[in-house]
Design a protein that fits this description.
- This is DUF3263 domain-containing protein.
- Pfam families: DUF3263.
- InterPro entries: DUF3263.
- It comes from Streptomyces pini.
- The protein has 88 residues and is an all-alpha fold.
- The chain has one domain.
- Helices cover 65% and strands 0% of the residues.
- The chain is built from five helices and no strands.
- The termini are far apart.
């Protein structure tokens, strides 16, 4: 499970990421037909609220271990985040 507000914790996952961090990246790799389906998976499989999920995800996007583990997904999400920040 990720701890702290800035960096995900190291754990038993690949590349120093925790199992929870790995699971969050796995959810983001998938395509989702609608936000409701994704939210259901977040709650049922990961056992966390969508708010907590996005907090963990946002921290992962700034974690070099996540980038090393899944560069395609992390870079795609970073671009989306940067685009959204530009609209604000």
């Amino acid at each position: 499970m990720s701890t702290g507000s800035e960096q995900p914790s190291g754990g038993n996952g690949t590349g120093g990421l925790s199992e929870e961090d790995e699971a969050v990246l796995a959810v983001e790799r998938r395509g989702w037909p609608n936000p409701g389906a994704k939210e259901r998976v977040i709650r049922e499989r990961l056992g966390m609220s969508p708010t907590r999920y996005y907090q963990v995800l946002n921290a992962l996007l700034d974690d070099p271990r996540a980038l090393a583990r899944d560069p395609v997904t992390v870079n795609r999400l970073r671009r989306r985040r940067d685009e959204r920040r530009g609209l604000r």
